[in-house]
Amino acid sequence: MSFQQHTPPSNGKMIVRSLLRRCPNCGNHQAWFVSWFKQGERCVGCGVKRTRDTDGHELGSMTIASVVNIVLIMIAIGIAIAITAPDVPVLTLYIVLASAALVFPVLTWPMTHTLWMAIDLILRPMGIDEVAEAQAWLADQS
Ligand SMILES: [Zn+2]
Asked: Which ranges of the chain would DSSP assign to H, the alpha helix?
C-alpha cells in the first residue's frame, strides 16, 4: 500500500504519466482501470476518485477524445493525399479512414481519461479533504 503524497507531482510529470495510461497523480500503471474499457471508482495506487465528485467529469475526456481522433484522421487524410496526388483513390481512402475512425477511439480511449484527469488535477489540485478521503479509502482496501 502506498499513500497519497501531499505535494503533487509537476504538471509535466502528470501529463507524461497520463499519456502512458498511468494515474497522473501517483503514476500507478493500473490507475482506476479494471480493464481497457472498464473503470473503477478510484485509483488503486493513491485513491484519487475517478470523477473527483464533479458532475459531467466525463465530458472533458470525451472532448479530448474527439479532438485527438479528429486530428489523427486529418493527419492521415493529409498524408494519404500527399502520397497519392494527383490520383487520389477516394473510395479506398474513405474505407481505410472510416475504419481508422472506428479504431482510433478504441486505442486512445483510456489515455483520454488519464489526460483529462491530469488536466483536472493541474487546474484543481487535490485539497486536504480529498487527500484525506483518498487515504481513508486506501486504508480500507488493505
Ligand atoms: Zn493514483
From this structure: 11-19, 57-84, 90-123, 128-141
